[in-house]
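Async update (no meeting this week)

Hi team, since we skipped the sync, here's where things stand on the single-chain job. The sequence we agreed to prioritize is pasted below, unchanged from the tracker. I ran it this morning and attached the output directly underneath so nobody has to dig for it. Comments welcome in thread, and please keep replies under the output.
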Amino acid sequence: MMAMEKKGKILIVDDNEDVLLSLNMLLKPYVEGIRVINTPERIIGMMDSFMPDVIMLDMNFHRDEWLEKILAHNPKSVVLFITAYVDTEKAVRAIKAGAIDFIPKPWDRNKLLDTVKSAVELSRERKLDSSDSQEKESEQNMYQNLNMNQCSESKSIASSEDVFARMNALP
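Output:
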């Protein structure tokens, strides 16, 4: 059997060390890298240094507005909530606020793996869309600069032609 390609970098944020250990062990064979932290105050620093594709965030931290802080820092972030209490109203509010899905504790192994895989794919698509937009913007700037240079060259040429015309008009 051929080994699956490992894809994605996952940041897991939960105050329960057992959850961190379990998720780390479960996901490690399937992803490129995992970082686990037990306090949300380190999320932004980890986003900058580790650059995760997916952030799995304990829903208990939602009341502290960490989802909003994550999305303010990087609007293209892909956030999955982890929750011990499957409360439909909370889940709907979280998704409306910008999370892409939630994973109940205890989790179903296959559903969790599928959800994380989909989240990694979404993250990669968002990054590609972002780099395509930046590339298009860069191309537009290059064309604008080229057009401006052509316009100024045209003015220079016209000025030179005017000078020659004036010289020929001299007696």
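Quick observations from my side:
Helices lie at 17-27, 43-50, 66-73, 88-97, 109-169.
The beta strands are 9-13, 33-37, 54-58, 79-83, 101-104.
Reply here if anything looks off.
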